[in-house]
């Protein structure tokens, strides 16, 4: 584990037994001065609010262009994206970016023993959680076990064949559907940071809906990131001072529905086909890159506190903070 002092115990795992409903990442203001003024721009990309803060306006524009480029390659909502065409054709020669992300997705699928899986989309659709959230209790429908079991038979990133030399991806079977929603945003943040560095920027913050990277320092101080108190939306429960670190959070506090007195999270366990059911409210992952933080935040939430903590220990540059009920 990293030797930073954000967490106190030997596993780099800090468990807070709080009666909370959730948390989110906030970037708090800093008192330190800087010789250059900072500029912040905000845009709606990849289905979320993306905010970039830096001292170079032209570099910010180029960083946004990188995020938009990644979105154009990997969005399932764009019928012309590589992922949409791959889902339709089942075989496609892809760009280096898409190849890299798919290779990483398979790596994490194996590393997490299936807790992270980019083929889980059909199960998410079957549970229809986003619509059930807004339905009256008597109108909510939970899928039957036989339907879940049938769908599980063709869920799995092991059905993705990658020919890295030819950059060709093949999907086994006609029912496999890829969704990079749990990994593409983190990768887009990393590419934006790369572009900022290429432009000579040494201090910046890229925040894509809570997946963020703190580049260098802001002025003479580290960037300060806070976890918001879920009960007091305008208050922060804990702050972290970061430099050249990524953070991502996953949890069950915003999207869920209650059926027959049982709470159903929007995050599906790809191994069981059912919404995750454990004592975790949220997981925040600190890593050297945002792709890793993005993926592990979901995987650790799915695995639970004990197994998730063991997974985190396999990475030298990763630390986690779990908020549990």
From TrEMBL:
The record's free-text note on cofactor binding: Magnesium. Can also use manganese.
Cofactor or coenzyme needed: Mg(2+); Mn(2+)
Record keywords, A-Z: FAD, Flavoprotein, Magnesium, Metal-binding, Transferase
Binding-site list for Mg(2+): 182, 294, 298
MF annotations from Gene Ontology: metal ion binding; transferase activity
Catalytic reaction(s) noted: L-threonyl-[protein] + FAD = FMN-L-threonyl-[protein] + AMP + H(+)
Stored Gene3D superfamilies: ApbE-like domains
Entry EC no(s): 2.7.1.180
InterPro entries, alphabetized: ApbE, ApbE-like_sf
One Pfam family named in its UniProt record: ApbE
Major enzyme class: transferase
Annotated PANTHER family: FAD:PROTEIN FMN TRANSFERASE (PTHR30040:SF2), THIAMINE BIOSYNTHESIS LIPOPROTEIN APBE (PTHR30040)
Family the UniProt entry places it in: Belongs to the ApbE family.
Protein name: FAD:protein FMN transferase
Record organism: Candidatus Ghiorseimicrobium undicola
Species classification: Bacteria, Pseudomonadati, Candidatus Omnitrophota, Candidatus Ghiorseimicrobium
């Amino acid at each position: 584990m990293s030797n930073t002092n954000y967490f106190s115990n030997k596993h780099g795992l800090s468990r807070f037994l709080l009666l909370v409903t959730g948390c989110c990442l906030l970037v708090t203001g800093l008192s330190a001065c800087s010789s250059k003024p900072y500029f912040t721009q905000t845009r709606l990309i990849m289905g979320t609010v993306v905010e970039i803060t830096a001292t170079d306006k032209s570099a910010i524009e180029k960083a946004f262009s990188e995020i938009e480029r990644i979105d154009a390659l990997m969005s399932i909502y764009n019928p012309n994206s590589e992922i949409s065409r791959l889902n339709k054709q089942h075989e496609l020669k892809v760009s280096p970016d898409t190849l890299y992300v798919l290779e990483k997705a398979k790596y994490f699928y194996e590393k997490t023993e299936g807790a992270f899986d980019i083929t889980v989309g059909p199960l998410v659709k079957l549970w229809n959680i986003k619509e059930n959230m807004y339905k009256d209790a008597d109108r909510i429908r939970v899928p039957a076990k036989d339907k879940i079991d049938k769908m599980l038979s063709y869920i799995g990133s092991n059905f993705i064949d990658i020919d890295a030399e030819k950059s060709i991806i093949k999907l086994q079977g006609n029912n496999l559907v890829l969704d990079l929603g749990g990994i593409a945003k983190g990768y887009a943040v990393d590419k934006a940071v790369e572009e900022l560095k290429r432009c000579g920027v040494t201090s910046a913050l890229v925040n894509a809906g809570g997946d963020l990277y703190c580049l260098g320092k802001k002025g003479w101080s580290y960037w300060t990131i806070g976890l918001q108190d879920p009960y007091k939306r305008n208050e922060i429960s804990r702050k972290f001072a970061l430099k050249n670190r990524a953070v991502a959070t996953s949890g069950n506090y915003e999207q869920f529905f209650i059926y027959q007195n049982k709470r159903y999270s929007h995050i599906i366990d790809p191994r069981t086909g059912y919404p995750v059911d454990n004592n975790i409210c949220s997981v925040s992952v600190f890593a050297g890159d945002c792709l890793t933080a993005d993926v592990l935040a979901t995987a650790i939430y799915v695995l639970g506190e004990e197994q998730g903590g063991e997974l985190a220990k396999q990475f030298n540059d990763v630390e986690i903070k779990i908020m549990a009920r």
